[in-house]
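Private note to self, pasted from the team thread so I don't lose it. Backbone tokens:
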């Protein structure tokens, strides 16, 4: 990376630093996670202040620093204002950005993860079903992180799953067939047939179809448990924004 560089990113977090500075976390397409300081950004006359808001999609010009990089110039691409007007959308967007940040490293770019986050935030602006959007996002993020969940065939023996095979293993990362279930010692989750159909459509990447449907609450709860357990087991993380998002959705 050169001393001065350009990055396109989503602002995922900010922290006050000193009397008027702030440290920002940017999920960038070119460099992965970038942590940088903006000088005097909390002063009323700061030219950067309006652009450096959490969830903003920005073009940023930065200078490499010893401990923290310095944001020298920034311009907004999309402020996602319609998301910021709705508490549920804010909770969902913060969860997606925090989950993305949790699997990124500094100076290790993942353009696919960045594009997934941006496209998901854009869809959230005109939601058809925000709950399934989140689960489609989680499924794709796990796949891009090297943990593709398997719903078309048994994760152990790779045999095709029949319609009466409704058991999922978060530890194994997929559906377990009746034969393998007999010897499986990990935690298992029983699946409703409708839940399995939704998950199989995810495996087939029929996301446009899934985003048009509105499953009943019992199916949504089952899907939430599947992805909550999978993220905990496969990624080993529990996010603060996840609890906030789930509390908001329940109400």
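Design output:
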């Amino acid at each position: 990376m050169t001393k001065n560089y350009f990055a396109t990113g989503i602002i995922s977090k900010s922290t006050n630093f000193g009397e008027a500075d702030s440290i920002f976390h940017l999920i960038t397409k070119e460099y992965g996670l970038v942590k940088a300081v903006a000088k005097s950004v909390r002063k009323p006359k700061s030219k950067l202040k309006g652009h450096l808001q959490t969830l903003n999609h920005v073009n940023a010009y930065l200078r490499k620093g010893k401990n923290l990089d310095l944001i020298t110039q920034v311009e907004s691409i999309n402020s996602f204002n319609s998301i910021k007007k709705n508490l549920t959308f804010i909770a969902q967007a913060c969860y997606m950005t925090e989950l993305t940040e949790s699997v990124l490293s500094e100076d290790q770019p993942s353009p696919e993860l960045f594009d997934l986050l941006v496209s998901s935030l854009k869809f959230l602006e005109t939601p058809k079903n925000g709950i399934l959007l989140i689960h489609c996002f989680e499924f794709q993020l796990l796949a891009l992180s090297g943990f593709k969940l398997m719903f078309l065939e048994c994760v152990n023996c790779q045999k095709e799953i029949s319609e009466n095979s409704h058991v999922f293993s978060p530890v194994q990362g997929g559906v377990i067939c009746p034969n393998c279930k007999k010897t499986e010692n990990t935690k298992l989750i029983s699946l409703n047939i409708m839940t399995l159909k939704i998950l199989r459509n995810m495996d087939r990447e029929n996301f446009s179809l899934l985003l048009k449907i509105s499953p009943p609450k019992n199916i949504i709860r089952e899907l939430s448990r599947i992805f909550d357990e999978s993220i905990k087991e496969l990624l080993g993380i529990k996010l603060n924004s996840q609890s906030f998002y789930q509390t908001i959705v329940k109400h």
